[in-house]
Structures
1.
Amino acid sequence: MSRDRNDSKSDPVLARALGPAGPEVSCEQCFELLDRYVELEIARAEADTALPGMRAHLEGCPACAEDHDSLLAMMRE
Amino acid sequence: MAPTLVLTRPESSTLLERLRADGAEREAAVAELHELLLKAARFELRRRQATVPHLRGDDYDDLAHQAADDALVAVLGKLDDFRGESRFTTWAYKFALFEAGVKVRRRAWQGREVPLEEEAWSRLATAAEDSGQAEAKQVIEALPEAIATALSERQREVLVAVALNDVPIDVLAERLQTTRGALYKSLHDARRKLRAALAAQGLSVSELEGEVNR
């Protein structure tokens, strides 16, 4: 299971201004991989190992993070 | 919740096969797909309801149908891209959630001006005052100067609006007539430059991140 987002910085202003430290996928790649990533999360598989750069992008991009949270919530219903 | 990923999904593959068929069979499959997308769009609108309190019932339904219609076009146009790495419904839902999310963010900001840069500087000053960590406070205080000197005009515009003033990236993309991906690239580049500018001042952000991780 992925760790909670934004757990790497204590200050939310710094987190938003400076974004994730590591490599990340683009918005287009995030959308491409989102369904697979969410299913791996639901299956408690290693989503972040299988799809590196997704978690960092979801930390840095609020819109993609909302899309992710919605898909995860919908598939868990 | 099922702990394992099921890789064989006959109900999904059946819908996919029927979408690839011809005639009445395909028409029925398209209608079925539209219902699924409408369900996802309504789900997203319910989640974002608080951000658009001025919308009435009919407005919601119109927005849900617009999102489902746009998602249907996108899904049908990309059917050949589906490689079965997830369930077909999961893959299709993401298009409807995306369309509904973009539409509701834009509707929530309809008629609102993008905040001025001054609001961001004021927010940073407040954040610096409120910060309980001396190192974080120092970095926040250094941000305005780094933003002013290290970034291009476009990078500054995007970073200030999206990262500091909480303007949804899809709203800014619409107003600047570009895409979420293009704006995020600017934001990403701006953040890298900011980190480098802070490091050049001896302010190590990575040490700060390491500190709070312990």
2.
Amino acid sequence: MMSTKTKKSVEVKLDFNKWGYVAAPESTDHIRLEKKYGHFINGEFVAPSSGKYYTTYSPSTEKALAEVAKGDAKDIDKAVKAARGAYNKVWKKMPASERGKYLFRIARMIQERARELAVIETMDGGKSIRESRDIDVPLAAAHFFYYAGWADKLDYAFPNRKPESLGVAGQIIPWNFPLLMAAWKIAPALACGNTVVLKPAESTPLTALKLAEIIRDSGLPPGVVNIVNGFGDAGAALVNHPDVNKIAFTGSTDVGKLIQKATAGTGKKLTLELGGKAANIVFDDAPLDQAVEGIINGIFFNQGHVCCAGSRLFVQEGIAEKLIRKLKDRMETLIVGDPLDKNTDIGAINSREQLDKINHYLKVGKEDGAEMWQSSCAIPSKGYFCRPTLFLNASQSHRIVQEEIFGPVLAIQTFRTIEEVIEKANNTPYGLSAGVWTDKGSRIFNMTNKLRAGVVWANTYNKFDPTSPFGGYKESGFGREGGLHGLSAYLKM
Amino acid sequence: MSKLDFSNTPNIDQVSVEERVARLNTRSIKKAAKVQGLKLALNMIDLTTLEGKDTAGKVRQMCYKAMHPHDELEGLPTVAAVCVYPTFVGLAKKELGNSGVKVASVATAFPSGQSTRDIKIKDTKFAVDNGADEVDMVISRGEFLAGNYNYVFDEIAEVKAACGAARLKVILETGELSTLDNVRRASEIAMRAGADFIKTSTGKIQPAATQPVTLVMLEAIRDYYYETGIMIGMKPAGGISTAKSALNYLVMVNETLGNAWMSNQWFRFGASSLANDILMQLAKEASGIYQGPEYFSKD
């Protein structure tokens, strides 16, 4: 418990939410979902070779949304053959400026169908419509626009190095940003002249399949992009397929390690974007109210299902009491519930399995002796939801500090000196991202040099832009996505 | 007693403040929540006329409007107060009678504040002696920008003493303060010197009230409350003319300070044309159709 006996601090409390905002749900009337989705191979939707389908559910209502083809090694082989054929016959030979035009067209079509994509993303994945509408979908379009511009300028990106495409790229993406991750993967691969076989996460396949419709309607030559649905075995078949030149994976560190083993010695080029346990560091001269917003955005964005989430908060001791009080009051204003409601801040946890994992860590945190605090908000009785949670008095050796929870759970530690916080921030197997909050510019540069993280945000958090490279140190992976750096992962030079 | 040091007040990050405002503006206020919010906003208005050409006739008509915003709609509140120059306080007081609508008077050489201390005190006392319930003073921006923070502090404290029982609103004139750091600093000075309300603007300088400035002031009020348990009111003034933007301001108050501030005891809008836009929206909520602007009296 933070000491409350200091100074003349009066027992005063703020209360919120007397003025209840009436629910403002986004309409789903305009959404067209097929009953059954096949794989997207060679420019058309095809039934799985096994004939097997699985159901994708909405995590906020627990209702079935669609049946989706369950891919296996045969489907993967078919898709890789289609990708190889398109690469050799069409895509490799096409003038780069023409490749760019297709990407521009896909970007525009994503914008045109933005509302539909946002609603489906929210239905299938559980994230709030505010985020899918304002972040996921616009950023997905922005990635296509950005890489479309590079397609015919690769020689300028890498002067005198004669960049060439790799061939067929196998891409496996996670469930936390289904459409955005598909865009991150597909756009640079195509811009560099490769063809693609993409496997979406099993719990969130629908927006990738909508993207497949867009790709088909854009007139992109058949086979340039192929999408095979399914589970881990389909992913493994893709990783192990002998005719794939490149694997790009975003997901858990455990699976990333398996993929690295599987691709070792095969000559396949590999990029991995894995887990994280980012330090978000607040110094005593920071603009506190704005830092609170950054902390909220850092850990509660997308229910905390973010590999770069600021899940470890380090607060300089002199301001800890004040900051935590502000943070708690801010958390009381967060609205948790129906993700389709435009006022919802925190939507549904992506799956029952993930909710169980988060609840397990809540138990572990308490057992290890950290003090748990949750906002008093109501949560729906149906669907998978978790109140925004703090752990106070967390220690470096607590499991909630060491392990990635991937939920709306923030572990708070205090620090005294700059050396101490750098050591603690770096004392993790991960190294994807970090945040620094201070009014002092020189301190920011000092910190960014010493933090072992691929991305360091200063006085902001979870800021994404296609022009900026993103990727990790240590067990958070290797290779960069986004920006100029994101091109080199899809080229041989 | 040693002087308070205002050279080192909390830092403000402008970019993040603007992002926070943008996020608050994504709140969707519909149906019952909208009606409730609009009525509350109407009840928070300081209906204002502060022109060189003000006359008794103008003030009289505005006072009637303050008490009867739109009699065709049932269940409407009055506005909170009328805001006039000191010379019209006596008249306004008489017109408003026991309606509950307060009389607020600007004072202290409004709007520039460029006068001597004793004239400012006399100005204040004149307004209070004529029956002003509230005094809206301006701070000396020149002294503030010259770094004479304690001059500004002392002046506010003296005006507060001259107010007696009248509540004091301190106008920072944020359009002349240039940075959000300065807005925060001026807020600290005003609250600690005895302000009952802090207020953004005179309405005579552009920009007048903005959401980022208001958010920074609300956060200053929150910190002062955390520290002392004392509530300070907030009044954005100037430039808020639509019902939609009034709701955006209310969302900011609701999610920064919470329930306790959601009344005209603690939050006001300084505005002249806002009332009619709110009335138009309320009439639309009641009847389902928009009426033209000529159906609402322009006093």
